[in-house]
Amino acid sequence: MRRILIIDDEDDIREVAALSLEATAGWSITTASSGAEGIRMAVESDPKPEAILMDVMMPEMDGPTTFRKMQVTPGVAGIPVLLLTAKVQGVDQRRFAGLGFSAVLFKPFDPLTLASQIADVLGWKEPLAL
Question: pTM for this one?
Answer without folding.
Answer: 0.91
